[in-house]
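FAQ

Q: What does a record look like?
A: Structure on top, sequence underneath. For example:
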């Protein structure tokens, strides 16, 4: 039996599909997942046009608020995916211009 992580008992992984993406996120990140979906679908035609290529399957988007640098972004999953981190850049970062 799999037990929830300490402090995470109320959190549950959810997913939903848009035309080009599958969003995977914890239930507490519903608002961020909805916003990311709108932005991703708006960006899709621009990016695929510039690249002159489209993935044949939906792109998996995993929205997280933690990460494991020791493992990098290693994954055994054999499909297109990206991970969106919900933590803002540090003050001295070159990525200082971000919205909400």
């Amino acid at each position: 039996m799999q037990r929830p992580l300490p402090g995470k008992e109320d959190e549950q992984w959810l997913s939903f599909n848009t035309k080009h993406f599958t969003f995977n996120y914890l239930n507490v990140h519903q608002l961020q997942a909805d916003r990311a979906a709108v932005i991703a679908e708006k960006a899709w035609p621009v990016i695929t046009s510039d690249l002159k290529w489209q993935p044949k399957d939906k792109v998996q988007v995993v929205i997280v608020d933690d990460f494991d640098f020791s493992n990098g972004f290693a994954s055994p999953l054999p499909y297109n995916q990206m991970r969106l981190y919900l933590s803002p850049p540090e003050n001295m970062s070159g990525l200082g211009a971000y919205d909400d």
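Q: Is there anything notable about this one?
A: The chain is about 20% helix and 20% strand.
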